[in-house]
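New to this. Please check this fold:
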Amino acid sequence: MMALVKRHLTLYFGNKSGVFFSLLGALIAFILYLVFLKQNMLTSWSQLAAPQNLLDPWLIGGTLAVTAVTTTANGLNQMIVDRESGTLADLALTDMSFIGIQCSYLVSAIIIGTLMQSMMFVAMVGYFSLTDQVMLSLTLILPVLGIMLLSSVVWTTFNLLLLSFVTNPDSLGKIGAILGTSAGFFAGVYIPIGAVPVAAQNVMKVTPFPYNAAIYRQALMADQLKTTFKPAPQLRDYFEQTLGIGIQLQHLTSWQENGLILVGFSVIFGALTLVFAKRSRRQAINKV
């Protein structure tokens, strides 16, 4: 299986334009914030001391969630190409089980998602440290890496399920564009979750997007939230609810609850993928 994982990684990173376009959704979210949203948000929260120290990590959290969605989807595109070219059928005739072959696509997509999130994280932290002098503690590295891995697992299982129904490689670009755009909205990057109608908030809450963005933001903003809201703690819940730093269910979700919710989504998506694996195997064998 490791040989197949290495093959998938080599094909992904060997396609430079594919790597760029897998980051396009995240880059658009980042640029939109800098060009159109940042000044408005700084003005909206001007009553806070140094609001950029909160809003810059807030954007990083949402953008990393978008990155996890789009890069794992692109990492799995090879599965569709192999299925339609007959390569998957050839692999299915080897000693490796079909589930093992599917796992090779899953593992490679998780690795791709984690690496690409790491790259975006370093780039965004570097940019904001130069422009806004926003510095993040080195103690955040391990928690953030753990969230990157969890995010990759969630979105790989989701995309594996989604792509189980795709038979035409020409559709992959359209699906990637839809995913990248919708991820920005559902993760509350383009518009904070507290600024959309309640009905739209309810739709967002039945997807993993806001919980993924929230757990990132809770990790990245924890220290700054304590500092900023020490003189006015009554404003903190409103700020967190409006910007999706916690998700309002019966109460604002904690990072532990967001983590458990994401694990729950992974289990559901993984179980459904196994159910539809028989269909994918039949499609692959029919290519022989």
Summary: Residues 52-85 form the longest helix (34 residues).
